[in-house]
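Late entry, written up from scratch paper. The run itself happened at the end of the previous shift, but nothing got recorded in the book at the time, so transcribing now.
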Amino acid sequence: MPYLSFQNKGKKRRFIFVFLLSVIICLVFFINWKKELLLPVNVISYTCEGNTVTSEHHFNEKIWLHRVNSIEKMKKFQDQYKGLEIDIQYHTSKDFFYVSHDTDSTINLSLEDIFDAVTDISNHYFWLDFKNLDKENQFASLQKLSDITEKYHLFPYNIIVESHDPLLLTDFTEYGFQTSYYMPWVKPYEDSKESMLQMAKEIDENLRNSKINYISGSYDQYVFMNAYFPKAQKLIWYVRNKPLKVSYLKKKLTKDDSVKVILLSDD
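Output as recorded:
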């Protein structure tokens, strides 16, 4: 009997140890998880005057699909998502948009090839990540994109044109497209508060000198965006394959009225 009692006590100790260790691991994971959506401590208080221009048109769906850069992917997911993101580059000499995340002039897949694969195109929204918009192709690309919208009988306000240069997006906004300023990369939990403040001032100046509808960035930048640009309309993406975190972020961001689109991966 004493031996059995000793064995039972040993089992209880091991159970308590494993239980406490599991609780500690879960707490550490939860804290690290939650902190990414809380206000970072290294933000300097500063009032930004720049803001986005509110569009009269709104999207019925908040969850969109990331990087639909192939006909196969478009055909596979078009019935599941109304909002679809496509990476585009404008080829000046050929006057067409080719679909590619990286600069590669050998790719012959055009934006029109992708649109041809959409069976009910008028009932979809498109986020066009315009990778190489610059001063040289600004007007030609706008004309080409307007021609494409007319060809497919699309409303420009159902298309978001995103670029790192908000000043060049102003003409797209005035034409009727919705536009988004792809914000410079900021790491709220690593960058110094001085560098973050300087970045906020630069973004603020760009917003004041342009006319765009949204600011866009990774979920990692969400706290920075909320801290310095709380009233701006936002587009947020999270493309990591972490189902629990995706579920948490969807619940969190859908409650934020300033977040108009959440871009997720389905890979």
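The longest strand covers residues 83-91.
(Scratch paper discarded after transcription.)
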